[in-house]
Amino acid sequence: MWIIADHEIVDAVERDAYVSAHADLVRRARQAPGCLDVAITADPVDPRRVYSYERWESWDAIEAWRAVAVAPETAVEVSSGAVMAYEIAATRPPF
Questions:
Q1: Can you give the CATH number for the domain in which 66 is found?
Q2: How far apart, in whole angstroms, are the C-alpha atoms of residue 48 and residue 10?
Q3: Cβ distance 61 to 32 under 8 Å?
Q4: Which of 5, 11, 40, 45 is most exposed, with minimal Cβ within 10 Å?
């Protein structure tokens, strides 16, 4: 299993439009083979921060999705961000 986690900083005035512009991408990703979950959400505290979270069964599933994803053209400038992919060896309930 793979998790891709990211946060991006955008203009606070454009943040909600940026998140909304990705709704179709999220919908399609969730239907993609091997997708376990995808979300692009606004931070509840920082009005400039957007989170992106993806969980996939395999790296092959990620690559297949990336080949057809077609992200939206938003014209919103991302001033900074940090994205990482994590390969998960095991899972268990946290409590």
A1: 3.30.70.100
A2: 5
A3: yes
A4: 45
DSSP string, 58-84: -HHHHHHHHHH---------EEEEEEE
Mean pLDDT of 33-60: 96
pLDDT (average), residues 52-77: 93
Query: How many Cα atoms sit within 13 Å of 47 on the Cβ side?
Result: 4
Residue 4: strand pairing partners? 54, 85
The partner residues of 85 in beta bridges, in order of sequence, read 4
d(CA 11, CA 9): 7
Q: Quick one: tokens of 66?
A: 């990336």
Whole-model pTM: value is 0.89
Q: What does the pLDDT look like over 15-32, one tens digit per residue? A: 999 999 999 999 999 999
| Calpha distance 2→74 (Å, rounded) | 27
